[in-house]
Amino acid sequence: xxxxxxxxxxxxxxxxxxxxxxxxxxxxxxxxxxxxxxxxxxxxxxxxxxxxxxxxxxxxxxxxxxxxxxxxxxxxxxxxxxxxxxxxxxxxxxxxxxxxxxxxxxxxxxxxxxxxxxxxxxxxxxxxxxxxxxxxxxxxxxxxxxxxxxxxxxxxxxxxxxxxxxxxxxxxxxxxxxxxxxxxxxxxxxxxxxxxxxxxxxxxxxxxxxxxxxxxxxxxxxxxxxxxxxxxxxxxxxxxxxxxxxxxxxxxxxxxxxxxxxxxxxxxxxxxxxxxxxxxxxxxxxxxxxxxxxxxxxxxxxxxxxxxxxxxxxxxxxxxxxxxxxxxxxxxxxxxxxxxxxxxxxxxxxxxxxxxxxxxxxxxxxxxxxxxxxxxxxxxxxxxxxxxxxxxxxxxxxxxxxxxxxxxxxxxxxxxxxxxxxxxxxxxxxxxxxxxxxxxxxxxxxxxxxxxxxxxxxxxxxxxxxxxxxxxxxxxxxxxxxxxxxxxxxxxxxxxxxxxxxxxxxxxxxxxxxxxxxxxxxxxxxxxxxxxxxxxxxxxxxxxxxxxxxxxxxxxxxxxxxxxxxxxxxxxxxxxxxxxxxxxxxxxxxxxxxxxxxxxxxxxxxxxxxxxxxxxxxxxxxxxxxxxxxxxxxxxxxxxxxxxxxxx
Length: 648
Ligand code: COA
Ligand code: AMP
Description:
Elements: H1 15-23, H2 27-34, E1 48-50, E2 56-58, E3 63-64, H3 66-79, E4 83-89, E5 94-99, H4 100-116, E6 124-128, H5 133-145, E7 148-151, H6 158-168, E8 172-176, E9 178-181, E10 184-187, H7 189-198, E11 205-209, E12 226-228, H8 229-235, E13 244-245, E14 249-255, E15 263-268, H9 270-282, E16 291-294, H10 301-313, E17 317-321, H11 333-341, E18 345-348, H12 350-359, H13 364-367, E19 376-379, H14 386-395, E20 400-402, E21 414-415, E22 432-433, E23 439-442, E24 455-460, E25 470-471, H15 475-483, E26 489-498, E27 504-509, E28 514-516, E29 519-521, H16 523-531, E30 536-546, E31 550-559, H17 567-581, E32 590-593, H18 607-614, H19 628-637
Parallel strand pairs: 4-17, 6-7, 6-8, 7-14, 8-11, 11-12, 16-17, 16-18, 18-19, 19-20, 31-32
Antiparallel strand pairs: 1-2, 3-13, 4-5, 9-10, 14-15, 15-25, 21-22, 23-24, 24-26, 26-27, 28-29, 30-31
This protein binds coenzyme A and adenosine monophosphate.
The site of coenzyme A has 24 residues, from strand 9 and helix 12.
């Protein structure tokens, strides 16, 4: 029987949470026991060992297939007719329910199609797709063959796509003619063509999903190695599962640091399967037959973990939603799906709830739906402001759970629990560490700070299963990015504090990474695009507070002399350049033109001060500043950004 959540109105007891935390203090025994939730070809006898990146390879002598665990074994157990995936697409008007048997059939044929294109165990396949079933099916098809998928979010532009193609070196790319956004179509093929022209990597085959609503651009000649995906799938023989080692990569998912190219976070097969199932049960309170609605995109970690893998590994039903919280058609879209499909948990980003509230402050749309199936709403990906948490708690009765995690960790690190004890929530806090994670807040020297003091949020090693096992193609980058801060710790890059009861409060990034509508973006990636413009001498991009999206990228630009008399044109050209190169999700909230940027003596731009000035705060000027007078000038000349006004 699945675990049922405690009602949030029931008296609080932390017994089950404390018992699980105590048991997880012996990680080897705890996770070897949890590993019984997975069907292994060779059951593991060793819990974990350190790998060449300094991270943990879990269950190193175990072998399995993730796709078998997500599909075949449920069909073998007689659940073939149960609902596996529900595709709800308000942008096309299509809804389709796939049973486990049907989804298995589709995945076997998609795996056969990939095999026909020469994909084998260990090859990489890049997916640049909208939220259509083919995306989830191909992810599982890669897993079936032991191939490694790298999904690239459809809102990224050509430069971002090219960087990922060059890093992942895919044998095959699967894309679609385009995506459907509220009120407009986003053609993918021109972006892919531009990315392939820019990338150095050679891609053997390109599969294209032809969407009836998005015809290929008129006159575009298909590449010589381009195939209609539905035709090759129709002609393919179903493929069987290939057994892989537990620590073999299942996927690469790119994420941003402050600067440098995106980091390809590598996830394994065995640890991932074990951890995600454990999380479904213990964090989310989800069992076989329950319904999970992760309203995110497959291009992000929430989509990988909680649209595709975790619900299917657990034998639950997952909703794949091709739409937005508002505008497809209105602010009732999420509530409508929950009511009609009996959703038990909703996962989304706080921005989505802020967007719904802005459009429907009295929650009239929600009141019209039957939400009795809903046991909890999990919000992650960015800071959950207490005001939004309170509003959502007032307009519906399910617990609203702020949970903190990252692409790197793959599943919640700090949360409240529907499958263990439901702990008394505190506004502004993500509650307590998930059993298996030990969270410490450290000062810049790596010493733990007392409760209530802000510092770097770090996780003690070894990380539990399901977390990153490395950075694609670069063992040293994982060490440098995450492990060098203090021996024995993973540094999350976030800043925050623990209170005296052990509750975590995440305050923001310790570096210059931005969070725009729950999407992590680096200053560096947008600055690289701006620097391509001949009119830009120097530039900095910072994330400025935005009431809806949390933050918005904002550019501060020093123009070349010959562009000084055309700064208005420069601003709009820079807007367009960022949209084309990085993608529309990185659209600049504003562009300020200045004479000089503030720098440290070693030449680093002091982005933090720029952000503070634009947020209307007094800048925290570092002692290493080269040109303090520039900051004083900027305080006079840069006006704080109107939180919702887009300045071009
Ligand atoms: N493919 C192509 N384009 C995309 C895209 C995709 N998958 N996703 C977004 N875009 C485009 C949008 O069409 C928009 O383009 P436009 O500027 O030409 O209109 C641009 O990128 C910005 O999109 P978005 O950030 O979604 O802003 P929005 O103003 O269109 O919508 C919200 C606002 C609040 C509805 C939207 O940000 C949202 O749904 N947020 C929830 C966040 C979320 O789920 N995050 C996942 C992490 S858990
Ligand atoms: P991503 O890797 O894109 O999922 O982004 C992870 C980042 O989002 C974290 O490092 C945090 O900065 C932020 N984040 C995620 N969840 C929360 C949360 N509950 N509260 C505050 N910030 C969060």
